[in-house]
Amino acid sequence: MRNSLSGSVSVFTSQSVFIGRSMRHSLRNVDALIMAIVLPIMLMLMFTYIFGGAIDPTGDYVNYVVPGIILLTAGYGSASTAVDVNQDMTGGIIDRFRTMPIASHGVVIGHIVSSLARNLLATGIVILVAMLVGFRPSAGLMDWIFALAIIALFILALTWLFAGIGLVASSPAAASGYGFILLFLPYLSSAFVPTETMPSWLHGVANHQPITPIIETIRGLLTGTPIGNDAWIAVGWCLLILAVAFAWSVRSFRRLAGRR
Amino acid sequence: MSKLAIEIQGLRKTFGRQVVLDGIDLNVETGTVFALLGPNGAGKTTLINLLTTLVVPDAGIVKVAGHDVVKEKKEVKRSISLTGQFAAVDEVLTAEENLRMISRLSGLSASESRSRAAELLRRFDLADSAKKKVKTFSGGMRRRLDLANSLVADRPILFLDEPTTGLDTVSRRTLWDMILELKQQGITIFLTTQYLEEADQLADRIAVISEGRVVADGTPEELKARVGGEVLEVRGTGDVVLESIPIDGSVRDVSRIINELSARYPSDTRIAIRKPSMDDVFVSLTAKPKEEIA
């Protein structure tokens, strides 16, 4: 017993323990899991059946709106990462991890990996329900693979950003509040209506915020609309957000020690 | 390990403009229980955080298990475990899952972790609640699980930050017994507390800390001798203390003082005999000018 205890713990071991822990958290937080799946589905049904006819009388609106709903799902689902991370940072457990001879930042990575898995599952369910209500993607296998890759990259970037918010927020409630602001971005994008239909003073914001090119790329891949440069811009945005969020969270995690 | 489990010399720590620790010198011998006694905001938790590598000192030398807490963090972490002020347990997991997680993070295999968890659950009287989620636990159960988490890895030095704050009397006694049992096993224990009685019950040595300085350091007996014994208080209208006279507790001493008081006060004046409180400790040890009453 003593031998295995005095030996050092590999990053692989500690990381898999932390991922397992966060997965358990996700599975046991049934309310949040259901919300992350049900809310986007409700929005999709609302946009398809209630607003859809007014927005696009041809009845083809479902094909337009699904890519936006997919991103919204990712947004809602990853926002809870801020709360998960913050609960660990403001509770006592982080002090235990930090005083053990392990890579304690793994606790944050555990939440990020768990969020990625949880959100990909939610995305899959949302796509299935979309097909039930009339979504008819024209995508081939490669299109699906690229689309899922971009969705995964977007979830990862957004989750990491929320993890950063969780690290700096003063309480879980604050973490949840800051996260909420980010969830308005999809409405200011081409998620629900083409940006040309918005007032001209909004075009600049709507066309140049990260959500629009990401949505246009997914829409192009799944339904065959023109993509143009949007794919590169989308990947660029995701990588930029990821890089900034990564640097920010590393810095915030290190600073936590000096805060108390 | 050297004879000293903890060595602190000239330790200073400030947060912004606030000086939290203002030149601390302390030694803790291996295998003893050391209590750091002080009021809220005295710097107790900061000192624990410095000793457990969570916070970096501004000045001074801090060695734990012979290793410098700044330059040899990893070695220090291999020698310690911390039970913080807020129970460091995962509320979403069960008690057993908590212990297995910490066991895995301490380098035990999955099967070793299972048996280690079972052993600790038995030892801390949590076996019946092993499969319950920690969020359903009482304060006392949480502390016990937290302490069990700290013992997973068999570290020679244990830090306990206010281990019994907020617990009822029964849970407090249970925890005291557990701490004394750990001492018997040769574990060095550094604990903080706001209660004089707790330090008196558990510690071989006590340091009293106030406003970031050690104002007294010694055995419980030495400390009590410095605080003094019981006092006889004379109370006027509205329960105002008119006079506070040290007594030795004997009939002779008390009757002499009462005779003397009856000459000076009306016969319906109230008196009370009081044991020294934490207030007395701090008044007498911080040596602040005492307010004149008479």
Describe this structure in words.
The complex is a heterodimer of chains A (260) and B (294). Chain A has one domain. Chain A has 260 residues and is mainly alpha-helical. The mean pLDDT of chain A is 88. Chain A is elongated. Chain A has helices spanning 2-6, 11-28, 30-55, 61-90, 93-98, 106-132, 141-168, 172-182, 200-208, 211-223, 230-259. Chain B has 294 residues and is α/β, with parallel strands linked by helices. Chain B is built from ten helices and 13 strands. In chain B, helix 3 (95-105) packs across helix 4. The chains are: A mainly alpha (260), B alpha/beta (294). At the A-B interface, helix 1, helix 2 and helix 5 of A face helix 1, strand 6, helix 3 and helix 5 of B. Chain B: It is found in: Cell membrane. Chain B: Residues 6-236 form the ABC transporter domain.
Features:
heterodimer; A: 260 residues; mainly alpha; 11 helices; B: alpha/beta; Rossmann fold; 3 domains; four-stranded antiparallel sheet; 27% strand; ATP hydrolysis activity (chain B); ATP-binding cassette domain-containing protein (chain B); nucleotide-binding (chain B); ABC_transporter_ATP-binding (chain B)
Catalogue the unreliable spans of chain A. Answer: none
List how many beta strands of chain B DSSP finds. Answer: 13
Question: From the alpha-carbon coordinates, what is the Rg of chain A to the nearest angstrom?
Answer: 20 Å
Run of helices and strands of chain B: EEEHEEHEHHHEHEHEEHEEHEH
Main β sheet profile of chain B: 6 strands, mixed
Strand order of the largest sheet of chain B: 6-7-8-3-9-10
GO cellular component, one term (chain B): plasma membrane
Domain ABC transporter (chain B): 6-236
InterPro entries (chain B): AAA+_ATPase (IPR003593), ABC_transporter-like_ATP-bd (IPR003439), ABC_transporter-like_CS (IPR017871), ABC_transporter_ATP-binding (IPR050763), DrrA (IPR005894), P-loop_NTPase (IPR027417)
Keywords (chain B): ATP-binding, Cell membrane, Membrane, Nucleotide-binding, Translocase, Transport
